[in-house]
Amino acid sequence: MKKSKRKALGQHFLISRTILNKIVKTIDPQQEDLIIEIGAGKGALTFPLARKAGKVNYWLDCFGQPI
Description:
The chain is of the alpha+beta class. Helix content is about 35%, strand content about 10%.
């Protein structure tokens, strides 16, 4: 069976709220911060960061698909 391009790369998307909250707490974004997220996936980390940081920019994934 042929794997999709994404599965062939072994990509896994973070969905654990506990881990996401720990990451955001560790980063401790402030309103004056600009966060640049590359390969934001489904936005699980983007949205919690955006609630705390002044601005979150995201980049395209490695296949050029907009996120």
